[in-house]
Amino acid sequence: MVNKAALDALKTYYGYDSFRSGQGKLIEAILAGQDVLGIMPTGAGKSICYQIPALLLDGVTIVVSPLISLMKDQVDALNSAGIEATFINSSLSLKETNERMRHVAAGHYKLLYVAPERLESEYFRELVRKLEVPLVAVDEAHCVSQWGHDFRPSYMTIATLLRDIEPRPVMAAFTATATDVVKDDIVNRLRLVKPARVTTGYARDNLALSVVKNADKRDYVERFIRERPDQAGIIYASTRREVESVHAFVRSLGISVGKYHAGLPEEEREATQEAFQRDDLQLIVATNAFGMGIDKSNVRYVIHNNMPKNLEAYYQEAGRAGRDGDPGECVLLFSPQDVVTQKFFIDRSEAGDERKTNDYRLLNEMVQYVHTGECLQLTIVRYFGEENGERCATCSNCADTRETKDVTEEAKFIFACVSEMKQRFGVTLTAKVLRGANDAKIKQFGFDRLRSYGRLQAVPEKRLTGLIHGLVADGYLTMSDSQYPVVQLTERVLGVMRGESSVFQKVEPEVAPSSRSGGRRSGGSSASIAVSNPALFDELRKLRKRIADEERLPPFVIFHDATLREMCEAMPRTEREMKSVKGVGDGKYAKYGRAFLELIQDYS
Q1: Region Disordered: what ranges (predicted)?
Q2: Count of domains in the chain?
């Protein structure tokens, strides 16, 4: 049970009466002096797990965070709640840095956010040696693992910070996604001592996941965003060139849109991100460089124009939708060229052979996700090691109303072909053999003389390759972890070949812009949110935007949309009633509450 002081701090500063799943256990462990590892999905409230202890412990808590924009947003949110916090990073001048370090040394702050690169500074280390540091919190801790999807060498310096702090502080590591291998790597590399491990589950019940194959991506994107004109969204693309192309296309539709990738000037990237955070811009096209730094709570949809390199990266990026707990949509537009692009990135990287083999394995698992007929949410939580998940009923597979087809006979021909080819070749060549293609490589290996040659010539190649990938996703076949993965048989094939079991799949239809795709209309409205008083809600949003612009803050730092909606339902008339609204703590009320209360009173 969480102690009263922690609950009082939660109510006073954050406006909530109780902790979410996992938060209480992590906070109790930290306050008891135990290291922790928290694996909590995006939007689950990881930051509260170290911010509450920071308020209750003597001294200043150091928070290691990877991106400047993320630090600024969190510090702004803390300050708006009446919590003294600051950051030190490369965006500050030397004079500003020195001034903030003096204030830190004087005990003016409870939380200090720094980038991992800052820990390499001897000047900063000297400051730390003079401080009372009860807690070091590591955000986006998966970055320390070489087996994670976003390894950053600078994170390796964090553990050495412990040598400069006496007595040793509690270490707290947090991330949204991590496989068991990555979790163990985090513990070892950050030198966590018998940490309390809390994993609250990877399922994001508010997100509707969709995979769309064989679609005209431009038509799909146009239809999707036109039907959501007032919603904030992100379109991810795999390369800078693709970002520029999609951005130009969306602009040609007369839609206001920003772009973000590492090839743009820093000033332009900062301006675009700031406009998006402040709701001056509702849509942005970006590479994965626009990822962890996005703390915007009201993103309603994320479209992946290209398949990411692995499931961890995908779920991190897709998780930018619905951070506030309200419905969000996550659409992955897939084409076979996406696999070629990701293989190119892996092949030209400077990683060692072991890392590349691991990256190819992760890419294969991403491809299997695209082709699975299983619940997409369930597929993801199982990937991260959860076995007791339930079907979500909202993803494109669960909502797919197409009739399941018995493909046992086609599957038998595929299994036989893979066997005759000695399990040494990939999906494309296997499909060509089955279709009886007049291909030089087929003749070179003598595959035109196989019994399987041409046995499925009536099946279109695109559908046949999709069928093979589906058999991989369903566990009948497997793919080797290499640059050119080969198809191999699993034990599940035996039952099918003996006639003891059958194989069923939903055959992918051709997708038109106005047709169904994966069981869900491309222009669905699953992210629509009911508001009891839309007119008042709109007025509250306008007031929030005016205050945010005056204070140069993102609107969600003032109040989240969910808080404004509860105001519309509760219609508070007194200070006490306003403070009973979730998200309105003492600090927020002192700064902003009176203005919102007066607006509601006038509206009534």
Answers
A1: 507-527
A2: 4
